[in-house]
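Researcher: Structure for this, please.
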Amino acid sequence: MTPEDGSRPDVSVIVVMYRSSHHIGPCLDAVAGTKASHEVIAVDNSSPDDSASVLARLHPDARLVTSDRNLGFAGGVNLGASHARGRYILLLNPDTVVSPGSIDALVDHADEFPDNRIYGGRTVDRGGNVDPRSVWGLPSIWSHITFATGLSTRFHGSKLFDPESLGSWPRDSCREVGAVSGGFMLVERQLWEQLDGLDESFFMYGEDIDFAIRARALGARPVLVPEAELFHDAGASSTSADKRVMVMRGKAELAKRRWSGARRTFALWCLLAGTALRGPGARVAARLLRRSGGEGWSEAWARRAEWRHGWSA
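Model: Predicted structure, token format:
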């Protein structure tokens, strides 16, 4: 519900639309059931489809902000957030559907535990299985080594050998995490303003982890709230190969930002080595790692010149 007296709402929901005409209706239908006072700000990120007109028809109460060019995820979110009035900022992907009470659970938890400052939920896939990618461990030199050697794939979900996955924890308990996915992330407004939002040097992918690293330096402790659940139709606006390339570009940019000197060089080398193992070495890797290398790796290796220097190259 939106405050009728013009007062500040509890939460400003920011949705960035790009080829989202088939998703924006169900997404905002689910948001509408939120009991906490809220406003919806939808950014049309120069989408080539009719996302804006579908939004106007199905959810005329949402505030539409348009851009004449694709600003990327970070730029689109920041544009939307510049119009926000809420006590909290909620980033929400348009290809998601929140379960009843999920946004309320985040707001309630944030009010009770304000020191965390960043809050996320648990995601389920098409089959109703938990998708662990709603939260992450922060990248480290060790996590880069496990990627380069294939250990993170061979022992997927291992706390030791796949540390960014946070182990086999099924996301069913409240726990501090390294970072929360930007697809469903509640942020204290003051923190958002302190950090000046997402870093727009990241066009897409990596900006949420960068935000968490900067926020943790200010004392934030991101947390998962298991009562906040949503369905995510992952990757609806990009192809598998393009997504893989952009993800790797985000990882390279994070390595450049987090480390310097020999550590940075080594981390970037690890990203190349791990991609080579899963790309041109996919057949060998499938035997050694006893599993598929996944879609998009061969293309990521072929297009390594596009991503190896990050977004700010």
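Researcher: Any notable elements?
Model: Residues 240-258 form the longest helix (19 residues). Residues 240-307 form one domain.
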